[in-house]
From TrEMBL:
Organism of provenance: Lachancea nothofagi CBS 11611
Ranges in coiled-coil conformation: none
Range within the parent protein: 222 to 413 of 448
Family membership: In the C-terminal section; belongs to the phosphoglycerate mutase family.
Protein name as it appears in the record: fructose-2,6-bisphosphate 2-phosphatase
Residues reported in the UniProt entry to bind substrate: 8-15, 59
Record's signal peptide: none
């Protein structure tokens, strides 16, 4: 069968500090996930020769560092750009830009950060990735929460407007098997 593997990067320092965006390294737990990932992938992929796609950000590359496969970086897989809010916590955003905070909650799919992106923008920049994925086999993608929501929604046939609210937990390897009428999903959760 044709599979696609997906994972968020391991927990980052910014995740711990509840800050969005940035380019921080992994936390201790995040590094543990990176260490366990090769074993999970082997459990799920056997001896298939995968190709790993990461974003250009440090946390995805650190997550991929122990995987014994060739790796490719895509700028298109970088996290949703939060513009002027990059590096802030949600509390700080609510205090500094209360109207934006409210607007985002009311229409999270369309809301575009000042100087940054909306989910719709991300869906559009993911088009080449999706096209390439449809042609390739044995790809493991290590990327970010918002980007994974959009990719996951695409394969699960969920309307993109719902993608901003989908739950994609940390430290979980997702395997998709696109079939004619539905995509079959298997998840392996790391115990760390
Ligand atoms: O907090 C991690 C993170 O990947 C941020 O970098 C990003 O802005 C956010 O999640 C996206 O999630 P949401 O759209 O729910 O704010």
């Amino acid at each position: 069968p044709r599979y696609i593997w997906l994972s968020r990067h391991g927990e980052s320092i910014y995740n711990l500090e509840k800050k969005i965006g940035g380019d921080s390294s992994l936390s201790q737990r995040g590094l543990q996930y990176a260490e366990k990932l090769p074993e999970f992938v082997r459990e799920s992929a056997g001896d298939r020769d995968l190709t790993v796609w990461t974003s250009t950000l440090i946390r995805t590359q650190e997550t991929a560092q122990h995987l014994p496969y060739k790796q490719l970086q895509w700028k298109a897989l970088d996290e949703l750009d939060a513009g002027v809010c990059d590096g802030m916590t949600y509390e700080e955003i609510e205090e500094t830009f209360p109207e934006d905070f409210k607007a985002r909650d009311e229409d999270k799919y369309e809301y575009r950060y000042r100087g940054g992106e909306s989910y719709r923008d991300v869906v559009i920049r993911l088009e080449p990735i999706i096209m390439e994925l449809e042609r390739q086999e044995n790809i493991l993608i290590i990327t970010h929460q918002a980007v994974l929501r959009c990719i996951y929604a695409y394969f699960m046939n969920v309307p993109q407007e719902e993608s901003p609210w989908m739950s994609i937990p940390l430290h979980t390897l997702i395997r998709l098997e696109p079939r004619a009428y539905a995509t079959h999903v298997t998840k392996i959760k790391a115990n760390i």
